[in-house]
Amino acid sequence: MQVASIANTVVGMIKLTENKDHLKENREDLEKAKLDLDKEPDAQTKEQHERKEERRSNLGKAIERNEAAQKERERQAKEKKERREGKEGPGQLRKRRLVLGLG
Questions:
Q1: Model pTM?
Q2: CB 103 within 8 A of CB 97
Q3: How far apart are CA 95 and CA 100, in angstroms?
Q4: Tens digit of pLDDT for each residue in 30-76?
Q5: Helices (H), 1-103
Q6: CB contact at 8 A, 23 and 70
Q7: What count of other Cβ atoms lies within 10 Å of the Cβ of residue 92?
Q8: Long-range pairs for 16-24 at CB < 8 Å and ≥24 separation?
């Protein structure tokens, strides 16, 4: 029984979700694309120049939307943390952290 209990505890400690920050990766890719666009040679025709400006504008808008989504996610995480701490109180939070081995 004790072995099963230990195994259950160990398995429970394994995180099943990936901890990638997809918004950050996406923002880095968008900024890289914008830099690559700036490195391209100047457009030959007026039409090419307009297309390049439109792409630059679209990349800028996408970066702004990404930053807004990041701020919203941070705000929601902060609110969730405040609600959790408000429900549990500092003693309960400390007890839970000790049980989980987080200090």
A1: 0.59
A2: yes
A3: 9
A4: 999 999 988 888 768 889 889 989 999 999 999 999 999 999 999 99
A5: 2-13, 22-39, 46-100
A6: yes
A7: 12
A8: 23/66, 23/69, 23/70, 23/73, 24/70
